[in-house]
Amino acid sequence: MVRPIYLASLLSTTLYALTIAFDFDSACGRIASQAASIANATIFFADLVPAGTNLTFPDQDPSCASTTSFQVVLADMCRVSLNVSTSDRSGITMETWLPRNWTGRFLSTGNGGLDGCIQYVDIAYTTALGFASVAANNGHNGTSGELFFNNPDVLADFVYRSIHTNVVVGKDITQMFYDTPHNTSYYLGCSTGGREGFKSVQNFPDDFDGVVAGSPAVNFNNLMSWSARFYNILGNSSSPTFITSDQWLGLIHDNILKQCDTIDGVADGIIEDPNLCDYKPEELICSPNTGTNNSDCLTVVQAAAVRQVFSPMYDLDGNLMFPRQQPGSENADFIGLLYGGEVFEYSRDWFHYVVFNPSFDVKTANLTDYTFVEKLNPFNIATFNGNLSDFQSRGGKVLTYHGQADMLISPADTELWYNHIAETMGLPPSDIDQFMRFFRISGMSHCANGVGAWEIGQTLPGASGILTSETLDPERNVLTAMVRWVEEGVAPDRILGTKHVNDTTELGVEFRRRHCRYPLRSTYDRKGNSSDPDSWTCQ
Ligand SMILES: *[C@@H]1O[C@H](CO)[C@@H](O)[C@H](O)[C@H]1NC(C)=O
Ligand SMILES: *[C@@H]1O[C@H](CO)[C@@H](O)[C@H](O)[C@H]1NC(C)=O
Ligand SMILES: *[C@@H]1O[C@H](CO)[C@@H](O)[C@H](O)[C@H]1NC(C)=O
Ligand SMILES: *[C@@H]1O[C@H](CO)[C@@H](O)[C@H](O)[C@H]1NC(C)=O
Ligand SMILES: *[C@@H]1O[C@H](CO)[C@@H](O)[C@H](O)[C@H]1NC(C)=O
Ligand SMILES: *[C@@H]1O[C@H](CO)[C@@H](O)[C@H](O)[C@H]1NC(C)=O
Ligand SMILES: *[C@@H]1O[C@H](CO)[C@@H](O)[C@H](O)[C@H]1NC(C)=O
Ligand SMILES: *[C@@H]1O[C@H](CO)[C@@H](O)[C@H](O)[C@H]1NC(C)=O
Ligand SMILES: *[C@@H]1O[C@H](CO)[C@@H](O)[C@H](O)[C@H]1NC(C)=O
Ligand SMILES: *[C@@H]1O[C@H](CO)[C@@H](O)[C@H](O)[C@H]1NC(C)=O
Ligand SMILES: *[C@@H]1O[C@H](CO)[C@@H](O)[C@H](O)[C@H]1NC(C)=O
Ligand SMILES: *[C@@H]1O[C@H](CO)[C@@H](O)[C@H](O)[C@H]1NC(C)=O
Questions:
Q1: Closest Cα partner for 99 from 139, 59, 140, 130?
Q2: What is the pLDDT of residues 100-140, one digit of tens each?
Q3: Omega into 386 within 30° of 0, i.e. cis?
Q4: How far apart are CA 146 and CA 349, in angstroms?
Q5: Residue 18 confidence (pLDDT)
Q6: What distances in angstroms separate CA 131 from CA 105, 191, 480, 483, 533, one per listed residue?
Q7: Which secondary structure element, helix H or strand E, spans residue 154, and what is its range?
Q8: What pLDDT score was predicted for residue 289?
Q9: How far apart are CA 384 and CA 124, in angstroms?
Q10: What is the CB < 6 Å shell around ligand 1?
Q11: Which of 133, 276, 447, 461 is the most interior residue, by most CB within 10 Å?
Q12: Quick one: pLDDT at residue 67?
């Protein structure tokens, strides 16, 4: 999605006077030789890139190209590309985008899945907002986990070292370039990017002043097993327990909405808080009188499988490994990946290249294996250390959000994580609110999209693809909300989400809704227009 960008009254242009006097073009000409002094770094190039340039990435791994093959640059910037070795058998490839209109802010972006791919759309977004921005390949190229095999250093980069190295080096380059250090530093990422944000909060509390970590893949080991477990429950396409995509989307999803959509008082396809949905798939069991037409009903074993899908996962000792999949999350984009009769590909790669070996038959993985996966926890990829006191005491702020209709990472995992922090630190939500806030985004799928008011400024599409004072308003944009929290001490209370007609900005706004911070719940007053955000309060 590429749209015209109107840069209007960005948060703060305090440095604008400074940037006028500063000779940006010459700085870009010098930076490659300056940065060559950084330990372990090899500079590939430093290019002056004018706003409007359509960048393509011919050197990038082809598997990354499926998500990004080009990116239109939104603001003048100096693009520095380099690699940095992290050991004698590992290293990262990274980019630093230095905007002409620098605000004095530094920002790092993150990755997704098991990749290995620079998220160009994210650095384009943050560079346009005046952040000196960095992105790295997380220690390996491509979306596969194969390069972890027999190379713990590549794995260490993925778990914690790439994100930290990228920040240390990126801050150095920023200072060399502008000849002055940054004032404030930020992070923006989702999914694996959300986990990277929390890894920084836990292990490198000085790296960022403000972290926006969406749909975080924390509790990572168990997430891999939980994703694999759907194969154990549903089997393959010839198993009696198997459920077709048509049944998930046309039968079960509709039945879930029938049972649960109006718990919140509005029949809008959005289950505001899926925790309140005690879904009973047995309602769909085929009646002996009407026969078994599988587009109308489920067999007994299928209904039992559906109940399992929506049940939490426990280990052999009865401890909770991962919370349940939330009903209502069924999504055409992901049914094939998780419920399609194969083991989820990231789980497969994790078992093949990290935990076991490539000859391990992932289809036979069982709870004994999953318990082993949990215990192995290489380099503490679990990212579940609930003691955030180092980050808290230095004044760091973290904002997390999670789509309540996320099928890839159950949003209940972020509740588990929040509650774990509360218990570890011995703090009630009113105290956690001082440094961490968690917004539950109803009707949002994985990091974006969905039937809910999912545009919250988390990405460029999440800012409607148009940077205006409206889309950058801290009341409705998680990134500018974080900047305001860090720099002005005004913490976000609620986030006003937007839903466009057919997710198309030009077609206008369908509705907006304010999303509440956990543990508050967005609650309809049962009298106003439910499309009006003022008809909802946080309770
Ligand atoms: C950018 O370049 C790519 C590849 O050449 C092309 O497919 C795409 O349409 C271009 N986008 C714009 C907005 O020019
Ligand atoms: C990784 O990709 C980058 C481009 O994104 C390329 O410069 C680098 O050589 C690649 N590294 C390997 C080991 O293939
Ligand atoms: C530089 O590389 C060496 C070995 O390759 C490694 O031990 C060291 O930690 C690296 N330094 C930095 C700053 O990454
Ligand atoms: C960095 O790039 C240089 C030049 O292509 C290459 O020789 C070196 O092996 C690369 N280092 C890493 C860690 O990728
Ligand atoms: C830089 O910011 C100024 C003031 O906000 C604006 O007028 C100008 O268009 C911006 N320039 C670029 C290249 O974005
Ligand atoms: C940092 O903030 C100070 C005080 O507001 C300001 O004077 C200075 O120019 C800023 N420096 C940078 C690099 O933004
Ligand atoms: C499904 O699994 C069964 C049992 O493992 C196997 O015999 C069968 O070939 C598989 N069918 C498909 C379509 O993969
Ligand atoms: C099953 O039900 C669907 C929808 O009600 C109907 O279109 C289809 O013809 C039925 N199939 C059989 C074999 O009865
Ligand atoms: C898992 O499979 C292994 C190997 O077949 C077996 O030894 C173990 O008992 C199984 N664990 C469970 C919980 O079924
Ligand atoms: C949290 O970590 C800090 C140091 O990092 C330590 O002083 C404190 O005791 C820890 N708190 C708990 C509850 O473990
Ligand atoms: C929205 O998309 C649907 C399905 O693609 C289409 O049928 C409908 O006409 C679109 N509505 C508008 C207003 O474009
Ligand atoms: C509710 O508000 C929406 C959006 O403003 C409007 O389109 C709709 O007509 C309103 N519904 C009623 C019943 O007033």
A1: 130
A2: 999 999 999 999 999 999 999 999 999 999 999 999 999 99
A3: no
A4: 7
A5: 53
A6: 5, 22, 11, 11, 31
A7: helix 152-156
A8: 80
A9: 30
A10: 2, 54, 56, 70, 72
A11: 133
A12: 74
Q: Whose CA is nearest to atom 14 of ligand 12?
A: 529
CA dihedral 512, 412, 422, 386 (to 10 degrees): -120
User: Is the CB–ligand 10 distance for residue 387 below 6 Å?
Assistant: yes
> What ligand is nearest to the CA atom of residue 81?
2
Tokens of 115: 């990749």
| Residue found by looking up tokens 């057919």 in the block | 502
357: left (phi over 0), alpha (psi -120 to 50) or beta: beta
pTM above 0.85, yes or no: yes
- DSSP assignment of 469-525, as one string? TTTT-TTT-HHHHHHHHHHH------EEEEEEGGG-GGG-EEEEEEEPBTT--EEE-
DSSP of 378-410 = GGGTT------HHHHHTT-EEEEEEETT-SSS-
Token output for 478: 């998680």
> 71, 55 in Cβ contact below 8 A?
yes
Place of tokens 């989702």: 190
Neighbours of 143 (CB within 10 A): 22
Question: Could you tell me which residues are beta bridge partners of residue 188?
Answer: 109, 212
Residues with CB under 6 A from ligand 4: 42, 83, 85, 91
* Dihedral sign for Cα atoms in the order 151, 135, 196, 415: negative
pLDDT for residue 2: 35
Residue 67 CA to ligand 1 centre (angstroms)? 14
The predicted-structure confidence for 303-355, as pLDDT tens digits, reads as follows 999 999 999 999 998 999 999 999 999 999 999 999 999 999 999 999 999 99
Which pLDDT does position 4 carry in this prediction? Answer: 38
* Max CA distance (Å), the chain: 83
For the chain, residues with pLDDT lower than 50 are 1-15, 17, 19
CB contact set of 262 (below 8 Å; sequence gap of 6+) = none
Q: Can you tell me the distance from the alpha carbon of 105 to that of 394, in angstroms, rounded to the nearest whole number? A: 18
From the CA of 266, which ligand is nearest? Answer: 12
Give the number of C-alpha atoms closer than 13 A to the C-alpha of residue 33, restricted to the C-beta side: 4
